[in-house]
Amino acid sequence: MRAIDANCEYLGLKGLQLMENAGAAIAREVKERIGTGKAVFIAGRGNNGGDAFVAARHLSSDPDIKVYIAIVGQASRIRTDDAKHNFNLLGHCTIEGLIEVTDASHLKDTGWIDDSDVIIDALLGTGISGKIREPESTIIDMINGSGKPVIAVDVPSGFDPDGGDVDKAVKADITLTFHAMKNGLTTPLASKYTSEVKVVNIGVCSDAEKYVGSGDLKVLQRRRADSHKGQSGRILIIGGGPYSGAPALAAMAALRTGADIVTVAAPASVAGTIAAYSPDIIVRPLSSDVLCEEDIETITKLIGSHDVVVIGMGLGRDGRTKKAVSEIIPLCKKVVVDADGLYGIELPIPEGTEMIITPHSGEFRALGGESADDVKAFASSNHLIILLKGKEDTISNGERVAINVTGNPGMTVGGTGDVLAGVTGALFAIASPVEAACCAAFINGAAGDLAFEERGYGLLATDVIDRITDVMK
Ligand SMILES: NC(=O)C1=CN([C@@H]2O[C@H](COP(=O)(O)OP(=O)(O)OC[C@H]3O[C@@H](n4cnc5c(N)ncnc54)[C@H](O)[C@@H]3O)[C@@H](O)[C@H]2O)[C@H](O)CC1
Ligand SMILES: [K+]
Hints:
Blueprint: H1 2-11, H2 15-34, E1 37-43, H3 47-60, E2 65-72, H4 81-89, E3 97-101, H5 104-110, H6 112-115, E4 118-122, H7 136-145, E5 150-153, E6 172-178, H8 190-193, E7 194-200, H9 207-210, E8 234-238, H10 245-257, E9 261-266, H11 268-277, E10 282-285, H12 296-304, E11 308-311, H13 319-328, E12 334-337, E13 354-357, H14 361-366, H15 375-382, E14 385-388, E15 393-396, E16 401-404, H16 416-428, H17 433-455, H18 461-472
Parallel strand pairs: 1-2, 1-4, 2-3, 4-5, 5-6, 6-7, 8-9, 8-11, 9-10, 11-12, 12-13, 13-14
Antiparallel strand pairs: 14-15, 15-16
């Protein structure tokens, strides 16, 4: 949901607009339920509280509804600009009562809850993390002990929208959840915390979900301060033979995407050339001038010390290589297969292997696919993730289809596919395969767009690598 929000921003739809729609829906629900009476809003200091401030404003002009607002914590410490903005507007509205609750007793002393006709729970939404702190914990108890009708905003406060364990949460009569059903609300546990769930349309642009946007990059977590070498990905690139540049490009792209260790296993004939490109790449020479079965033992050991394998760039299509690729793939837990590696795939893929393939349309056809319309069905029947490269990239895990539109015709130059494979491999170490594929397509294309601004049609794959960090930042 956070990714969709951020994608909306990227498209120009502001969070404030979504909040307005969310709050308006809450206000309508309150009005429908009580018609006349006292509505008590319990608002946290995040955007969940922001939704409540909007709803309170909408109801404040209704002569039959009396609005009371309890902000949990100090109003001066409201955390987001959108929530702050909507809080400030309440200064121009007819509100019956507004207090700051820094201790649960403040709320109890008002008697508002006992006197209310409905409680609107906007304490915590999807931004919850960890065990419920005070005063929130006692306030949840107060709401649950009140016997009053409760409308929960987005999720019952304290409930994990992803469906994880619940320490303590509000018990609501109805939850109005925004834009899409949250996974957690479909679990049996949810029925303990809300009798009913309604999904409310808040006007999200369909493109925010259909197209990969900068918001999708939010899955790429900030690193912990105590991270150590290897935790952000050890990537094994298997490539080279007829070509030496392709695996080097993939390796440099993986490093620029944030991978900690990148090793290239390449035929002995090109290992020296690859090593000479950059001291940042670790190179392990294989036996001869193409990848072949004699290399399996060396490669098996290398796979054991890496998180993700990226195979295919510059390998060529020698029969020995195809055979070696088909034997290497089942040894991998996580593998990205690109370029010539695609010709060594044997379907169905082996159990225990998570695979992302990154074909262009010709390679996709060689695998038995036809067009972008087939991507979802092909991914589903073969249990893999496809990133089909094209003017628009199509990504699917067999359930969802996402389209990426970053990139430009300057990127038809050789090597940009190798860059994409490297970016994908690096992200696969730290994200789910479909997230990795979506983010990689976006980052590669956006880096290409920055390179195009500088270089036009003369852009090179190495220019794209140079701009990856700008996109990631
Ligand atoms: N597209 C949409 O669905 C929209 C959703 N909106 C609403 O925004 C919330 C999410 O807002 P966010 O600011 O990210 O977080 P919260 O308001 O849920 O909570 C943050 C708030 O809570 C405190 N906190 C976190 N964990 C705890 C804890 N364990 N104990 C106590 N306090 C905790 C934290 O410090 C913050 O202050 C979403 O649910 C929707 O309701 C927007 O309206 C836009 C559209
Ligand atoms: K809530």
